[in-house]
Specification:
Blueprint lengths: L8 H44 L7 H32 L6 H33 L2 H10 L4 H12 L5 H19 L4 H21 L4 H16 L10
Helix pairs in contact: 1-2, 2-3, 5-6, 6-7
């Protein structure tokens, strides 16, 4: 009779060990994945809790709902970015036609951007149902390292004579950058959005006759006059 039981003892044992070993590796992989997912859940939950702690929400149930919305946004973005990156990796494989690879890369990026936009709108709508406009701004700042208020304040320090219109243009650009930065997958990508928009702001100010280098020198002089040697320099805008 053929089959597994007709194999020589050593061969049968080898096959059995291979089956057991494969099963064990699969179990280890599943356990590792579960551990990684649990660790990721802890990270995004703690990150969301730190943001919520700054909002002054006295209702524990509401605070929990907002925390879950923020953590869910982080998870949703990760799923979009992981899916995008996996598809982009396929584009790096030899296809024989660079044009096909370029078209595929563009299509994947466009689809990811559409998915981010839809997720972003649902997220902001969910937060808006729970929070005041000020609290919503705080969440957005919390997800982007507070770059908007810090950078806006530094522009006002560098250029104390900005008109209301110029101040509004600066703030509008920073707020637009924040919307994109919220959906970025890494700190570097988030700051990249702000660098892009600060470049636009600087070009706008230059076209209005402002001299960035002179503004930095004037700022340093004001610091020396007010408090002696300055302890810090203005951010390289």
């Amino acid at each position: 009779m053929g089959g597994f039981f007709s194999q020589p003892p050593i061969a049968a044992a080898t096959i059995a060990w291979a089956v057991v070993s494969t099963g064990a590796r699969a179990q280890d992989a599943a356990a590792s994945t579960a551990d990684e997912e649990a660790a990721y859940t802890r990270v995004i939950t703690e990150r969301a809790e730190r943001i919520v702690a700054q909002l002054g929400i006295n209702d524990a149930d509401k605070a929990r709902r907002v925390r879950d919305l923020i953590a869910g946004q982080y998870r949703g973005l990760r799923e979009i970015h992981d899916g995008r990156d996996a598809k982009l990796a396929e584009a790096t494989r030899p296809t024989g036609d660079p044009a096909v690879a370029a078209a595929w890369t563009s299509a994947v990026g466009d689809q990811a951007s559409l998915d981010e936009f839809a997720l972003h709108r649902r997220f902001v709508a969910g937060l808006s149902a729970e929070l005041t406009p000020k609290q919503l701004d705080q969440v957005k700042d919390g997800m982007t390292y507070g770059v908007v208020p810090i950078t806006y304040s530094r522009y006002l320090e560098l250029f104390p004579n900005l008109t209301d219109v110029e101040q509004a243009v600066i703030r509008a650009n920073l707020l637009e950058a924040r919307e994109f930065a919220m959906d970025a997958g890494s700190s570097e990508e988030k700051h990249g959005w702000f660098r892009k928009y600060k470049g636009r702001i600087n070009n706008y100010l230059a076209s209005a006759g402002y001299d960035m280098k002179q503004a930095e020198r004037d700022w340093a002089a004001r610091q020396r006059t007010n408090s002696g040697t300055p302890e810090r320099s203005p951010e390289d805008l």
